[in-house]
Amino acid sequence: MLRLTLFELQKVWGKRSFLFAVCVLLALNLFFLWYTHLPEGNTPDLTAYKHFSQDIAGMSEAEKHAFVLDRKEILDGVSFVAEILTMQQSDIGAAFAQDELASHPGVFETWYPLYQSGEYLRYTDTLEQETALIGKLFAEESKVSGYGEYLQSIQNRKDSLSGISIFVAQDQNSFAARNIQKSAQDFAGLSDASIRWIPSKGLTAALESLWTDLLLILLSFLFAGNLITEEKQKGLLYITRSTRSGMGTSMAAKLLAFLIHCLASAALLYSANLLYFAAAAGGWDLTASIQSLAPYLESSLPIRIWTFLVLSVITKALVLFAVGGVLIGVCVLSSSILLPYLSGMAFWAANWALYQFIPAASKLSAVKYLNLFGALRAESLYGSYLNLNVFGHPVSRLALSWGIVVLVSAAGTVLSLVGFAKTENLGTKDAVHPVVLPFRPHASLLRHEAYKILLTNRGLAVLLVFCCLIGYNTFRQTYSPTPQEQYYQSLMLQLEGPLTEAKVELLAEEDGRYQKAFQEIAAIDAQVEAGTIDSDTADAMKLPWQSVTAFYPSFQRVQQQYERIQTHGGAFLYDTGYLYLLGALGRSSLPEFLLLTLGVILAFCPVLSAEFQSGAWPLLCATRRGKGSVLRAKVLVCSLSSALYFLLPFCFRWISIAPVFPTHGLSCSAQSIPYYAALPAFLPVWGLLLCKLLLQVLSGQVLTLIVIGLSGWRKTHVQALFFGLVLLAAPLLLALLGFSYAQNFSLYPVYALPF
Length: 755
Prior knowledge:
With 755 residues, the chain is mostly helical. Helices cover 71% and strands 2% of the residues. Among the domains are: 206-422, no CATH class; 452-479 and 577-751, no CATH class; 500-565.
């Protein structure tokens, strides 16, 4: 039996195509982990959690609490200053600002110097991200530090129930009363003695990845298909069943091999998840109690984190085996190749819909939690506590879920064994599937090559998928102008255009307001030095004037444009939107360029290798137009597709930026943007944008030609893909991991040039 099981495993895992598929899915899993956790808007980067974990390493629980509380107080104070400055931008808001200042005396004065210095940013780049990070961590720490009170509250509910009057004793037989008693019993053996708070971001992200679960389901489909469908297509199951132990032992070995595959694939993908997040967000103390992680604090299991991880992975594997056993049975019984896969996808989709859309508090909550997709989310089985109402008695969701998994596993095993023994049809029927865009004969070589590259080799589908990923990544980024930027934007939009007397008067009025504020602050400081007033009184007197001078750096940007216009001529232009659009401001475009690179590699690596693998080049060389014409047509199709592909990210950024930072004055000279003051005066802003766009398209053309060259050099899809990823994508990945010098071995410096 063991030798037969190993043979069944070797038949599938020994195939290069299957191993390649596993490697591709593993790479896709890591890609989705990275992509779905890119920083955006108020969401901090994973490295922020890593640096925070390093700061609290070795601290006692009291020291952790004091450290997080201190960071929370700092950010609350700085956020208050930012809120007051924002309010003061309008007449109505200024009145509310005065009320806030009166109700929080001394807060603005205390935190304003720190706000001005920017030294409150310790882990992220913006106040919003820093506040979101510390707020989340403070909430987690507060929850974990109160674990003792949480346990006591559970026991208190039981004691309160015991003290109910005898006249309402019948209520003690209700589900709610029984649930309270059962909860007290389940939590009775727990204490807060082994609780050591750990930031949960990395571990929860590693275990709760929907993409990883989907890829595991896909791997189970691939294994089942290779295990059964291929043998059915070749008619080998008739021979297997006719052997001495063919009916029972053979199918049992296949099922056991499938179980081992599920365990191995789940361990492989989730180990990769844990390693990735340990490197990106910091490691964890695996010997700590599971309740040390705030999201899993409600668990009633006295287990360590490493035990929790092992149980979760094993449970996911057993759920996959349960559904896969049914899928194998359907594969055995069905003469259609597609029916098992379609039924499997429909089953998982239905379970996901039930889990996703049924409210937790509804009467159908049992259906929500007891379907197999709910069991596949094993971290919620072991990391939470839930009893379901079974005829008035509370029964653990964990026990019921395990019962469902066992029942489905038994059903799948019986279906596979009995179906293999009893069915008379162990072959498959060929199915003819219509082509969405059928090929029609024509004499255009360019059209023919476009059809082969974009449709037959699925290049168009690949490019569209990556366009959607880039668009999602771009549009989910939110822009939050600071109070200073809002002031600068408001003033510049009033000044836009040529210099006039009215604009000169407006600037003089603004400058006079600031000079008066500086003079008043200096006068108050002089009174302090003379001993006329004390420092507390001085701080209160300087408060309204400091609120004015907070925006002076933004006014200096306006003055910079005014001085340039006086010296060289030109016009006022609000430039922030263009600085974001051209890459001089904002986050790095490295993730965007990595997505573009991956799209080009996957779409165009088969361009020339397909002709070598099919043996078509000798025939093409003998035609009238020959190999050269075919090659030129291929390059032209790829170049045009790549040009359109590299145009879209620039358009996405413009659409995302323009509503927040208006981009007016396209016909103005590029010198109107101070950052580009050294450019020739005759170059307009639209010309500057066109130069940036052409530079990005040019980098895409060079990238495309390199991929086509690799395809012709290596002559196989797999090798062209491998060398493309190593030479073109690997330097970008290294740069994203912190090895910034690696980007110099790629085309990214050309693509990201802020020109």
